[in-house]
Amino acid sequence: MELVGDRWSLLVAREIMFGNRRFSQIARNTGAPRDRLAARLKSLVANGILEKREYQATRFEYYLTEAGKELFPLLISLLAWGDRWAVGEPPMIVEHHGHRVQPTTVCSVCGEAIDGRGLHWTPNAPGWSLAGPDA
């Protein structure tokens, strides 16, 4: 969440996935203040989520790295969630081979849908339990 959990990062990734790679396009379509957008783009590049490529002297386009491309399932799931819970009519229709996308998370080992049941949580960070940091 530290890398992409702010207000603008996922919107930036969405725009780049749509093919809007230039600063002016990203600014227009996200509504991000230009100074914050510049800082966020710089951070996303520094953290390996975006790649900055010059297309003209002192002008750049942004591309998703492999790490950035792995945000795609998250964005599709958030879009579906928003379509169901936040709007009356979806502002964007996403289709896959001619049908509306219905994203789900599936375990790659057993093939079952992951819906919250059957999960076991094991903290792996030193000094942490499910209740938070150890006192």
Automatic annotation (TrEMBL):
Name of one Pfam family that matches: HxlR
Record-annotated HTH hxlR-type domain positions: 1-90
Keyword Transcription annotated: yes
Top-level taxon in the UniProt lineage: Bacteria
Keywords: DNA-binding, Transcription, Transcription regulation
InterPro entries (UniProt xref): HTH_HxlR, WH-like_DNA-bd_sf, WH_DNA-bd_sf
Protein name in UniProt: Helix-turn-helix domain-containing protein
